[in-house]
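Box S1 | Example of a co-folding query
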Amino acid sequence: MCKPTPVPSLNASHSGIPTRLEKEAQATKEKTYSLKTLPDSVPRKHPVKLPPNTSQENFDLAITELRKSLVNNDAVEINDKPLVDGWYMEHPNTHDAFHIADQEKLVCSAVAYPSSVEEVQEIVRWANRYLIPIYPISMGRNLGYGGAAPRVPGSVVVDLGREMNKVLRINGENASCMVEPGVSYFKLYEEVQKSGFPLWIDVPDVGGGSVLGNALDRGVGYTPYGDHFANHCGMEIVLPDGSLLRTGMGSLPGPNGDDNPTWESFQHSFGPSIDGLFTQSNFGIVTKMGFWLMPATEHQSYMITFPEEEQFGQIVDAIRPLALKRVLGNIPQLRHAIQELAVTGRPRTDWYSGSGPLPRDVVRDSISKLPVGNISWIFYGTQYGDATSITSQLSLIKKEFAKIAGSKFYLPSDLPPDHYIHSRVEVCSGIPSIRELSWLNWKPNAAHLFFSPITPTNSSDATKIHHLITTLHEKWGFDLFPTLCIAGREIHYITNIVYDRSDAEEKARARKMMKEMIDAAAQEGFGEYRTHLLFADQVAGTYDWGGGALMRFHEVIKDVLDPNGILAPGRNGIWPRGLS
Ligand code: EUG
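Box S1 (continued) | Returned holo structure for 2-methoxy-4-[(1E)-prop-1-en-1-yl]phenol
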């Protein structure tokens, strides 16, 4: 394939790469492109996808009016050009870059770029006048869960991030910040460094996402502040009627018209706590959000390997008490050996030329040649605090895991400089990275889809869901890439399904496997914490205790706040009256 263009820098674009990672990003992109067989774009099969029940004439009228009400000349773009999947750092806002269905299935009709909260309000009022569904995105990097794509094809995507991307303030004393939707982890990190305050941000596995958007989807990271929603403080929201709301202490006006001085200090206000209503929902557009930052500290990452596949339950049971007692410093990850192969960035054909899933003996032979040797599971943890407490924590942790036969403990200094653990050191101390993208070289034109059930932290439940997922991966012919984020009481069991975007048959198989996993898991009482747009209805349908009491509650709120059903209809399975 052709040589890829330079990766946009953070100086030039809100969604770009910081200077410190420019070389690595370019090399990663070039490697991925070297495996690409798909052209950058193909001619569109269909004309512009219009919003539902909207004639071309009304659409043109509506767009003309929208253009007039927004200040920037290029504030509205019609989605009529060829669709370009791009690359992680140049992701599209026109469709799902990781299209698990046809590339043209989930497309918007147009993209609007508001440059202020007032313009967001204008857009919402406009949508109500023309009954055109709008779909807000912060950065649109929700890859594996639908990217920037709207649930209802033909919606107008409201790309908040391009123009609204400021870190509004960083408070060094309060250890907090207030951000707009277009602030990525990369950007917040740079801004905190510039501020000079000794503070950390918390980052997920890859750093290109929106801090605000990730928290609204209830994403996680890997410092002690890893629960992103739990560490938010204060929101500003444009409601579906165009009115503006501030939650928490932001609802109490500050002196002289200033923002309330405790907005980023206390999460609640007086009366019900409503912030959660704006996560994984379609009840409002969040335009500002506060976050707590962690005081920088000493830290020590480590890795523990386990030789046997069957030790899985034992590992889970060893983690639980350590996590419950908060001996473990962060939400650790437990990964399967096959990830150790994938995260090297080498394609699967380097290890195996067959078509089905990698046979276990091939994984064993391959992993045996890597520095960790013949192992089945790898645990990545990090401890925090002063050197003395880290030492005492580590001795407790080592003692517990040493009870598992054949386990081995490593510090980063025990492993070669190109080992993945060094990227874990960064992620677990709040430095955003792109190393995790290496997985995307596993197959040509690779994309991924997450299956993300929650299980209690105990060996019998965790083993049950692990077997269910393993069996269905074998049945449908996919390599199993489990990454488990293990807390004291629950596990986010993240399954990374990697597929070739050029292969319609493989994509259909991945969709069928996903459907079957969702149903089979629900029958055993397991549900997903988050899912791709295309599976939202099915997942929402599994949370049906009491004859669907929860969804009825969501729908009552939806219809009161958004009687015209213009805001992200169908998001997380919540449909407005008359559209389900
Ligand atoms: C990961 C973790 C997630 C998620 C998607 C991916 C990690 C991948 C804990 O949540 O939703 C390595």
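The domain at 35-159 is CATH 3.30.43.10 (Uridine Diphospho-n-acetylenolpyruvylglucosamine Reductase; domain 2). The chain is about 30% helix and 15% strand.
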